[in-house]
């Protein structure tokens, strides 16, 4: 057993408002600068829909993530090393700007300084890349709220369902899917980088692209199945979500998490067994990967685990944080949070509680609170997103949340206990209620601020505080 | 390492495990400082956003190297109890982009003047002897005036200075006051709570000048007139945290995640307590996604659904079984037990007005407002405590104790006369649901007969009338429903064909709602919003829903009742703020005008009004007038509504005339005015609104985007008010010609001499203004913020100083005041005697001026014109324009002793005293304000507001409750604030953290740290009456005009539907479709704010859009993102199509306040015209019942009662835009 600590996030999609505050605060914090305009480290997608970049889930096209080779070993879907070397100067799977969108601004100046006209002046769009006037035909959130219905229809999770989804007004459904880098346990980007510029931090599992080392080969871009590595056209280097490590290092949650108005993000530490990562990711049946990932996560109360963690140099603060981790509870204790597309085999460390949805029209007058199969968003659709198509696990997950609601309703009205079998105890359901509903700040975010990188030379850090020698000084 | 070797590092074997745990060797991890540096900052400052969204969120602004870098939400609100979620973080994506505006190319950095005007002014100044003369030489010369007015909106600003721009403004204001009267100067700014002192600055300036601040809440149709109709309260609503107390919630026309983003979490979270959430919405909205059920009602038919739900609840919870909780609530807190006369009116037997004590022979003051009921214990008709008849005369009886007001004996109100009935009377009731009933349904009601001064009269109870109206079968005949499957008004089956909602779903939902209310003692809630509020008949839609609320005893209960969130942004410290805003500290009688009427006449929309009231009135009545404008003339005449400019002569001229005719005292002058009106020697301006001397001249817009956002009938604004290019397609085509309004040919000259914009960004109002002043942003000034959504007050602070030449609104109006005072002196125009015509106000004795809801018009000889009784009050005010500045900067003497609200007042003298030390005093001995507390700086004004308001000053809160005790004869109300008597919240306190407000009588509910605010809990728990004629919640509105229009009781009325155009605008080969035109709130903007922000535009489609159903779009060959034009007689918009299956067929969504300055091309239907704002195809439609005044809760209050600027009953023709012309010449 080789224990590593991972900062991990859970997003409760059932509470997502689709408001995009996370995207904006993230952008303002990190990417509202030249070369990065088109990047959304964090974006929000309407589902069904094609997402950002367009149809990113179509791995036939992008070849992201891992597959198993003939011997059952993990191999990057983009091909062998030789294969990738061949593509060093030509990447057929490289997304183009149009797959994201061409960023633009407007001729705002013309409104004040454009001079006297025969008609009211108007600010027209202008490309931030070419600086030319442009037509706006695609954006990072073009199909928000099912705008442009054809996009929803080409969502691969829908087309994979092999059954007719009626897509008209009466049967329509949608929910939101915020996305960021998953800071995977088995990141394809790291393996794909020819320069060795991408690494997973030892102390917290944050995956970063070294801006010193990156040489702009862009192999990481297609190999990330979530398309969460971007190429900065100004610096010619890859950039990605940094999990707000400058904040994590100070015990603060990520900007997207802290500013989430739906209060649906949870951040905490989990321990996992690094020695088993490869084996678990290489499981033959892709529907088993989710449960394998959960198995990788270790019980932070287990004395063996604690001992092993100490041996690995993990501090008491981190052990304590792991024990109070909301992520551990949601993922492991209650099993209500799932990874996005586990079949990509990268073992994502960002998790999602799947969303409830309105009761199907045909049973609306018969049902007070629905069961997992009586809701508008088809279980199969959600299963395609979160369980590699396994509807049983997906339905079980939804049912746990529904049971919690019924349990609480009966508590409120004094209607007596639930009359069907539930697979969580009353204490668990109440604990889940507290975390999901009351969601107090200090329960949502449990982050140790004692970070390894700052342990060394603290006195020097205190005294220097970023002071660098002027040129020619400090011999 | 060389670049080359770096490049081929890939070839060097590295120890890479699939899990990727590795640390680069080269350069180590020092590079990580790259992002650490990006995150670093120099300071964090708390402030907020002053945008009209009701959010009132506290934000942290990160400043780096003296520049605002980014912002994110504060999370440190005072905590709520452990068993509920906290208020953090509050914010939304729109607010999160605000820092962009500070340094964006859209920022207004300097004062600007329209080029043509600047040239004229600079020339005129050379020759004129003073600025007023200079101004006169421009505006009185038609050619010169036309030169700059017709250039409005066409670009061509030149940079000016503060000195020059304020001087032009001052000259125009003073010239207007001198020549036409100060009430020709007006100002528009929106909802104050979002930045109270910025609002107060302009209003204070205008009120000191005698100008006219215009209302907002009614104008943008957010005011639900149903609230005053039912409760006698503008709007009151639970804080969002109270949703968490609900056991069942319907969101009805309210898209909570979109429009209440910071609060939406309470709604998703309460579901985990097992609360069911039902979404009633025509589209699959954001709010629908997280609901448990979707009732996809057809747009605008909500009242039919609610009537059917009411039918189910009445039948199952009142008739089939008795529900004790509901019944007791109905008896105690609603007008259900009150007696109504059933009599022959206009030849048919129908319910009339309430029976009152005067009918029964009592003669004392107020007896005509003492409504009566039957005491079940004694079987006698009694006057209970709490009616409006006792409000102004017998305070000890004005409470909701169930007592006989004459004997003090306990009473038990009888709900129904059914068991004691002396007969069954078949009455005719108005009905608007279909053609075949011809406007009338017959229903049977039990009646008894009482002896009145007019002889025997049949009466029944409101409860009996309600059951009859809803068609509940009581076994006494009439057209009633024997089962839910009857297609009889108002059964579930009847509603299905109107609303599209399956009958069984309507039944199940009604049952669930009532069942939960019964189980939880009222914790069923309906969150209501703009989707059902902006209709012409929104008030009656609301009343059908409010009935459900009241049937189930949910109002005045935590976790229950209506939760109305449309622009209701509660200004918590209302008294202190009100004193400063109205300038009542120096001069009484502010001219607070309702905007809808003002704009209706100012933009000449009466000329093109489609409404013929003969089509709208009940078939049981005849309309007094057919043209809505005529009713407004009536309302001005009878003192129902304010009407500024008021008279066709300036006040000073009028007073001079009166004196010349021998009048000496104010009373004699008033008598002269009344007679002159009666003799038609003097006119109301609204009788001849196009006349040169009768229309407004100057209009300020600050904290608002009137032209780009709220100009209903936008193109008529451009045409008549501004006199510039416009896209009105059909004008002068009113359905009927008005009788009371003089019809002149339109001259198109542009009524306004100046449109003055104060803003930090260049949007449409700026583009169309003559002068633009550069404003501070929300990160550059001090101010206060509060809302109904949360229980805190908090602050704006300057994170950085004002950039460029910008100023805060407080400083801008102070600078203007200074210039006005100087120009007045220089020009020799200083003193002015003013007469202000004030309407009969709610919460004042004016509300009992016109009893029994009878309309008596003195101009028709039906009564005498008596100021304050049958016509407006006339109040005399002496002004001195040389002192405007001196007064603006200090707190005046009129409020040093008493302040208050809602007709109550209490001592504030000791607190006023503390301001001498706190703020310092004015030290210039020449000033009239010498020695008075300073409010020169905005922060001083903030502290004055906090000190003088009961919700921020515990001592005053306790006094306010004491005042309520004296007003009601109730005891122990003080307890509501007692524990917080020692608290006094200051500006600096809130710099540290937002603060919980203190309960005071300025609200109808109460709250503390452990209790969420819920309205009317002081009524249900402490027995404070509702401010209505019965003192209870009203199911029955008995005013003559309410009955004329069939709205005495709630019912269903279809939406208005007029042909979009009369003329032929077809284009060869371009198919067209006629659609309903709905303008819900935009996800990517808050009104027009943020609409132009680069980040928001990037997150969706980059400009104006119009949403269409896929099949509708296919019908006209429109694909997603095609350019579309949508037009009707009022104007045209050009927008990109968004094609979606979540929109039902037959309707289009053009999201509200998409402004026309970003990415809008020319149109085809009107060549050489750019597409307008979302308001281009809208028109002001006024509803006469909203104009009623002088009668109880139906009395005027600013933003409280008055016609709404609804804009939802519109249809448009949509078609593909054949050519896209950018009109850039």
From TrEMBL, chain A:
Domain spans labelled 4Fe-4S ferredoxin-type: 7-36, 172-203, 205-234
GO molecular function terms listed in the Swiss-Prot or TrEMBL record: 4 iron, 4 sulfur cluster binding; electron transfer activity; metal ion binding; nitrate reductase activity
Keywords of this entry: 4Fe-4S, Electron transport, Iron, Iron-sulfur, Metal-binding, Oxidoreductase, Repeat, Transport
Subcellular localization, as worded in the UniProt entry: Cell envelope
GO biological process assignments: anaerobic respiration; nitrate metabolic process
Residue stretches spanning the membrane: none
Entry cofactors: [4Fe-4S] cluster; [3Fe-4S] cluster
Record-linked PROSITE patterns: 4FE4S_FER_2 (PS51379)
GO CC terms: cell envelope; membrane; nitrate reductase complex
The keyword Transferase is annotated on this UniProt entry: no
Enzyme type, top EC level: oxidoreductase
Listed EC numbers: 1.7.99.4
NCBIfam families: narH
Name of the protein in question: Nitrate reductase, beta subunit
Organism: Veillonella dispar ATCC 17748
Species classification: Bacteria, Bacillati, Bacillota, Negativicutes, Veillonellales
TrEMBL record, chain B:
Gene3D superfamilies: 3.40.50.12440, nitrate reductase tail (4.10.1200.10)
Localization per Swiss-Prot or TrEMBL: Cell membrane
Cofactor(s) of this protein: Mo-bis(molybdopterin guanine dinucleotide); [4Fe-4S] cluster
Keywords from the named record: 4Fe-4S, Cell membrane, Iron, Iron-sulfur, Membrane, Metal-binding, Molybdenum, Oxidoreductase
GO cellular component assignments: nitrate reductase complex; plasma membrane
GO MF entries: 4 iron, 4 sulfur cluster binding; metal ion binding; molybdopterin cofactor binding; nitrate reductase (quinone) activity
UniProt-listed InterPro entries: Asp_de-COase-like_dom_sf, MopB_CT_Nitrate-R-NarG-like, MoPterin_dinucl-bd_dom, Mopterin_OxRdtase, Mopterin_OxRdtase_4Fe-4S_dom, MopterinOxRdtase_cofactor_BS, NarG, Nitr_red_alph_N
UniProt key word Cell membrane: yes
GO annotation, biological process: nitrate metabolic process
EC number(s) recorded for this UniProt protein: 1.7.5.1
SUPFAM superfamilies: ADC-like, Formate dehydrogenase/DMSO reductase, domains 1-3
Pfam families named among the record's database cross-references: Molybdopterin (PF00384), Molydop_binding (PF01568), Nitr_red_alph_N (PF14710)
Positions of the 4Fe-4S Mo/W bis-MGD-type domain: 42-106
Membrane topology designation: Peripheral membrane protein
Family classification: Belongs to the prokaryotic molybdopterin-containing oxidoreductase family.
Protein name as catalogued: nitrate reductase (quinone)
Lineage of origin: Bacteria, Bacillati, Bacillota, Negativicutes, Veillonellales
